[in-house]
Amino acid sequence: MKYDLVIIGGGPAGLSAAYAAWEDGCHSICIVERDRELGGILNQCIHNGFGLHYFKEELTGPEYAGRFITMLQSTGVDVRLDAMVLDISADKQVHIVSSAGGYEVLEAQAVILAMGCRERTRGAIAIPGTRPAGVFTAGTAQRYLNIEGYMVGKRVVILGSGDIGLIMARRMTLEGAKVLACVEVMPYSGGLTRNIVQCLNDFDIPLYLSHTITDIQGKDRVERVVVAQVGADRRPIPGTEMTFDCDTVLLSVGLIPENELSRGAGIEMDARTNGPKVYENMETSIPGIFACGNVLHVHDLVDFVTAEAARAGKSAAAYCRGETADGAHVLPVSNGNLVGYTVPQHIHMDADWKTVDIFFRVRGELGKSKILVRDETDTQIAAFSRERMAPGEMETITLPRVLLEQAQGAIRVCVEEEQA
């Protein structure tokens, strides 16, 4: 079957991309979603805090997804649910399988990758100890509790301070569990400040920074964990061990963009983000294949996913109309001092745009700082001030064309913290 645009993933990124593409005149669209319903991870995020930027009001995750699902119902977008994408070819043939349609090949002019991300597991971080029941990723525990209706434990220790882990600390407490501690190997939290306040501080749950779990003990079920302080090299410091009697360990130790399909298609990847390298219009290294949302880089707010996916949707619609940049003049973007990565990684200088948004994360907790944009001659072409920055909160700067046209060669984004 042929479509102008095939979107892989029906979560917040896929929904926003589809609606934006439809509004921009692309009326042959198919969303392929492996779950039985649209909405993605938002369906299990029953807490509020969504939509403050995009809808200008506070919504729960299902409410936020519901808004876009309702908007999509006013369009003619085709939706394939309970359908798994097996492969994407460089010529944009999407191979899918489902119980309803069996094996199918969808031919598209353009493809948008919106597969989201997955959680790191215990195996990925190699925690020592036995292998009892009671060890869950935070997202798995969230699904069990909020969708399936199962209480996963009564005495809980959380490893990692990512946003899902922080939110689950509050959720488990509200359901009657005792959350004994949240343990973070880094000297700073990986989550939003508001979640540290609302999910830990408000419930008197201790956060142990520069600590990690060094042993999980138990035969059939988790019985206790050993936590130790770590040094600057992140190795446990002998003599600092604490033992917590618990029956559950939740892991909130990072998210990984879901990019097996991207790699299989031969898309150029970025080792810093674990996602595809993209241009300012969200196009990957393969013309006509775009990427957005957590498959590109892990976001902290769904509102930012929505805006980024809308850009991808409009760009894909323009590609289907034959509106493409010739690629003669491309400006590379890289990260400098204290910056972990930048998205996009390239900018088409011969495309029709007025400003470009650059997203990045810093490598540590910073006070009053300057964000500096320099070119290959080390000439400063832009500067921005921030009162504070943290790795758990994504930063964005907007660069106008007039400044980028002055750049000599590639540009890099760096940060300098002001001395107190």
Describe the structure.
This protein has three domains: 1-119 and 255-324, FAD/NAD(P)-binding domain; 121-253, FAD/NAD(P)-binding domain (3-Layer(bba) Sandwich); 325-420, Immunoglobulin-like, CATH 2.60.40. It has nine helices and 27 strands. Strands 1, 2, 3, 4, 5, 6 and 19 form a seven-stranded mixed sheet that branches. The chain has a five-stranded parallel sheet with strand order 8-15-9-10-11. A five-stranded mixed sheet has the order 22-20-27-24-25, with no helix packed on it. The radius of gyration is 22 Å and the shape is globular. α1 (12-23) links the parallel β1 and β2. α5 runs parallel beside α6. The chain is of the alpha/beta class. It has helices spanning 12-23, 61-73, 122-125, 138-148, 163-174, 193-200, 260-264, 302-320, 401-404, and strands at 2-8, 29-32, 78-80, 83-88, 93-98, 102-113, 117-119, 135-137, 155-159, 178-184, 207-209, 211-217, 224-229, 242-245, 248-251, 255-257, 269-270, 275-276, 289-291, 330-335, 339-343, 346-348, 355-362, 369-375, 380-386, 395-400, 411-417.
State the main characteristics:
alpha/beta, FAD/NAD(P)-binding domain, 3 domains, 7-stranded mixed β-sheet, 5-stranded parallel β-sheet
Summarize the structure.
By secondary structure, the chain is α/β, with parallel strands linked by helices.
